[in-house]
Specification:
- The structure holds two protein chains of two kinds.
- By secondary structure, chain A is α+β, with helices and mostly antiparallel strands.
- Chain A has a six-stranded mixed sheet, with helices on both faces.
- By secondary structure, chain B is mainly α.
- Chain B has a single domain, classed as MetI-like fold, CATH 1.10.3720.
- In chain B, helix 1 packs across helix 14 and helix 8 packs antiparallel against helix 12.
- The chains are: A alpha+beta, B mainly alpha.
- At the A-B interface, helix 2, strand 6, helix 3 and helix 5 of A face helix 10 and helix 11 of B.
Chain lengths: ~325, ~270
């Protein structure tokens, strides 16, 4: 089901967490709310779930105004960063919770729980307690619990934030596949641009309680709306007055029009990628990303003088007006 | 190594001197004239009534203070309202005020002749002072803080995420409380109940003031112990003390028995 956030404002005392935020999430899509901590992304997710009430604005779920509804009535699945597992219940009971509350017949609950445990690969863990599971398993249990009630939308608040890097990577790929299987409209919060790029179809960049840009991962990377987005969604390097992606800088051995003279300080080989650190004439320094083949071809070495020029059609934020 | 031994010795020695030896002597003295004499001393009609009355105190004070304690802890931890700090401080009042003062305060409110509402109650046929209701009130007063104090830290620790998760899964306030919050705080509640029970069993000062100490009528087990002791019936006094100690012990054991074993606590 689609979600429409219409001019939502939310304050906590003097702090403005959301400042007139509007947003549309397409039915069946997978959207990331991306931004630095304190930017308002978790608050926005909680407003959609009904866990926070906005001071102004509306939230529509599946075309219906959900703003006055309490979370119980919204039929949304919510997954918390720290799992919020019911510690005194087995995995089976945790997953069955929403169905038990809805007083579904026992055999139906049993069948559905079995199905979901299979979906999240926890078939053998039904009778364990959350304390007997690893972090990744707990989060998969929480996801199964949220999906059990067939929610209209699935909301995940930094779902992989408490997990270590390897498990995080695994779960990301898995969430992506799960979404392809289940097709439930999904919104997740993350402060990790790589996670947002890898998993989401649509990314909403939130900063200081405002939407900076909404677009596909590629849009954001190649056509950032402003310098904040440019710097937030990928690496940047300074060249003159502008910020460029480090792979959008050409290294030349001879001076040409519009190129900047620089001296190579250090060449680091990172497998296929080569990082070249340079100092510019005015004492500033910068770095450029190139490939091993290109570096060998140019015979880049420390102490050498080269010229830097923006590549053709680089990703760049528009000049501030 | 030496410090560790010294530490252990100090802790155990302190406990032995202050608790172990005196309590052991009570047990020994109770049976100085044999088990039969002790049994007889605690099965007289007066003794039986005293234990019955103590049980009534426990049966009323513990459930009421448990319900109040959980609600009060929820209000203090989960809500923001004017007077929250005051409520939090008031709960500790029974710890700070001597039980004798509690008894006297109850006299000022419920005394038949000059109590604040005692006169009106007496005219309507309700006796509080020198009667069971007054003694129950005194017991409730002194045993009030335990559940609140045990539950508050547990509520803080579990946080609100589990409750929010329950809400998004469709659970209303009552369902969330009974299915999620209460099970999560149950060991805090259980420990609070044990302490409340122990305190209610052992209460002497406040009950003593409001009871009138009428043997066989308004005499609880602790008052019975004092009564026997002052009449030089040492066997009676110590034997009744042993029964009180055993009752407290049973409460503790019961709590350990109902603890589920399948749960692995992280």
């Amino acid at each position: 089901m689609s979600i429409v956030v219409d001019s939502v404002t939310k304050r906590f005392g003097d702090f403005v967490a959301l400042d007139d935020v509007s947003l549309q999430v397409r039915d069946g899509s997978l959207t990331a709310l991306l931004g630095p901590s304190g930017g308002g992304k978790s608050t926005l997710l909680r407003v959609i779930a009904g866990l926070e009430h906005p001071d102004a604005g509306r939230v529509m779920i599946a075309g219906e105004d959900a703003t006055p509804q309490p979370p119980q009535r919204r039929n949304v699945g919510f997954v918390f960063q720290h799992y919020a597992a019911f510690k005194h219940m087995t995995v089976r009971k945790n997953v069955a919770f929403g169905l038990t509350i809805r007083k579904r017949p026992k055999d139906e609950v049993e069948a559905r729980v079995g199905e979901l445990l299979e979906l999240v690969h926890l078939e053998g863990f039904a009778d364990r307690y959350p304390s007997q599971l690893s972090g990744g398993q707990r989060q998969r249990m929480a996801l199964a619990r949220a999906l059990a009630v067939q929610p209209r939308v699935l909301l995940l608040d930094e779902p992989f934030g408490a997990l270590d890097a390897t498990v995080r990577k695994e779960l990301r790929a898995w969430l992506r596949r799960l979404h392809d299987e289940v097709h439930v409209t999904t919104v997740f919060v993350t402060h990790d641009q790589e996670e947002a790029m890898e998993v989401a179809e649509q990314i909403v960049v939130l900063n200081d309680g405002r939407t900076e840009q909404v677009g596909s991962p590629r849009d954001l990377y190649e056509h950032p709306a402003n310098e904040f987005v440019m710097r937030f969604v990928g690496p940047v390097t300074p060249l003159g007055e502008r910020w460029l992606r480090p792979h959008d800088v050409d290294i030349l051995l001879e001076p040409v029009m519009g190129a900047t003279e620089a001296m190579i300080e250090r060449v680091t080989h990172l497998g296929f990628e080569v990082r070249v650190e340079l100092s510019l004439g005015d004492g500033d320094s910068t770095w450029v990303q190139t490939t091993r083949g290109r570096a060998e071809q140019l015979e880049l070495a420390e102490g050498e003088i080269v010229w830097l020029r923006p590549a053709r059609d680089p990703a760049m934020a528009p000049e501030p007006a | 190594m030496k410090t560790r031994l010294a530490l252990r010795f100090a802790a155990l020695g302190y406990l032995a001197l202050l608790l172990g030896i005196p309590v052991a002597l009570v047990f020994i003295n109770a049976f100085q004239d044999g088990v039969a004499a002790a049994w007889e001393a605690v099965t007289t009609p007066e003794a039986q009534h005293a234990f019955y009355l103590t049980m009534v105190m426990v049966a009323v004070a513990v459930p009421l203070n448990t319900i109040f304690g959980v609600l009060c802890a929820l209000a203090i931890v989960r809500q923001r309202f004017r007077g929250r700090a005051l409520l939090n401080a008031m709960v500790d009042l029974p710890f700070a005020v001597s039980p004798v003062v509690v008894g006297l305060a109850l006299l000022l409110v419920y005394g038949h002749r000059d109590g604040w509402i005692g006169e009106w109650l007496a005219e309507n046929g309700i006796r509080v002072i020198f009667s069971t209701p007054g003694m129950i009130l005194a017991t409730m007063f002194v045993s009030l803080p335990f559940v609140v104090r045990e539950v508050i830290p547990v509520l803080r620790e579990i946080g609100t995420e589990q409750e929010q998760a329950a809400a998004t899964l469709g659970a209303g306030a009552f369902q969330t409380f009974f299915r999620v919050t209460l099970p999560a705080i149950r060991w805090g509640v259980a420990y609070g109940v044990v302490l409340t029970t122990a305190r209610a069993l052992g209460e002497f000062g406040a009950v003593s003031v409001v009871s009138g100490k009428l043997s066989g009528r308004t005499e609880t087990a602790t008052l019975f112990v004092e009564n026997r002791f002052q009449r030089f019936d040492e066997t009676g006094a110590y034997a009744a003390s042993v029964v009180l100690a055993l009752l407290a012990l049973v409460t503790l054991l019961a709590m350990n028995l109902i603890k589920p074993k399948e749960e692995v606590r992280a």
